[in-house]
Amino acid sequence: MQVIHSQHLEAHIDSVLVNVFKDKNGPGGVFLVAKNGKLNYRKAFGKSNIELDVDMVPDNVFQIGSMTKQFTAIAIMMLEEQGKLNVNDVVSKFIPDYPNGNNITLHHLLTHTSGIKDFTKMKSIMSIAKEDLTPKELVDFFKNEPVEFKSGEKFEYNNSGYVVLGYIIELVSGNTYEDFIETNIFEKLAMNNSRYASDRAIVKKRAYGYHNRGAFTNKMYVSLSIPYASGSLMSTVDDMLKWQEAINNNLLVSRNTKDKVFSKNKLNNGEQFTYGYGWHLKDIDGVPTREHGGSVFGFKSMSVYVPSLDIYVIGFSNCDCNSPTQVTRDITSLVIKNFK
């Protein structure tokens, strides 16, 4: 593809997104592109609330699903810098009765190499889906399941690992996960529209979540204590840009710690895999990226950061029928070509 001149970049991104969000009266999305921390693109599509016929706006608040794992990982690294834990610590140091806990480290949990059962894949998950569980109760739900493989033997994406990390954050800090993230990250970075998700609280400019099962329906109710530290945060694209800038500028953790977060890791057999701590480490058109998506009932999210060009692209959708994963990567590809 030929190089796209900056003045045409907006039109090219528009054409990509209009093709995805064809139904102006259906659920929509919000997308943002930034270069060197400055906005290049920020637009909303579709409806934030179908029933009330409310248009989406760029500062709508979305559930971000597994992008929450970025915050959990950085929280763990902040505690490591404070000397309160080490990523090489074993789980049993914090949860003495955790089965096989002497063989599972925080590093294994962070990198999805622990081998513990992913509770979201358990057939019995629906028995707790609507229950408000404490972190200990949630960990107890899956901790006695047989391990899938020996720790460090393979990479297999795992929500349970990040639930255990959230619980450890609470045990070590003396605060709830929600309070720790709110105080040490959201307040510090003035991420004023980010929060632990709630279906009960009044959240200004909330985007409502939908499914499409042949027709649009309101999202299924699931207690937000269940995704917990693996997927229960809410944010806006603007706040997420603040988050990315804070990481770039080492406002939360040092450069050395950041290098650890964004290093590819190896399995027991020496084979490298493309996940750091809370981010996939991939590439687009041969250019290295840090990226992660999220999926939680009624919502999908995706962000891509290109370190070499300081490009950040993020997309939110308020229907799990419209995954922004590929379109966000496609937009990133366009932007890379524009600035390379």
UniProtKB/TrEMBL annotation:
InterPro entries: AmpC-like, Beta-lactam-related, Beta-lactam/transpept-like. Keywords: Hydrolase. Coiled coil: none annotated. GO terms for molecular function: hydrolase activity. Its EC number is 3.-.-.-. Pfam families: Beta-lactamase. Residues 21-320 form the Beta-lactamase-related domain. Gene3D superfamilies: DD-peptidase/beta-lactamase superfamily. PANTHER family: BETA-LACTAMASE-RELATED DOMAIN-CONTAINING PROTEIN, D-ALANYL-D-ALANINE-CARBOXYPEPTIDASE/ENDOPEPTIDASE AMPH. This is Serine hydrolase domain-containing protein. It comes from Lacinutrix iliipiscaria. The lineage of its organism: Bacteria, Pseudomonadati, Bacteroidota, Flavobacteriia, Flavobacteriales.
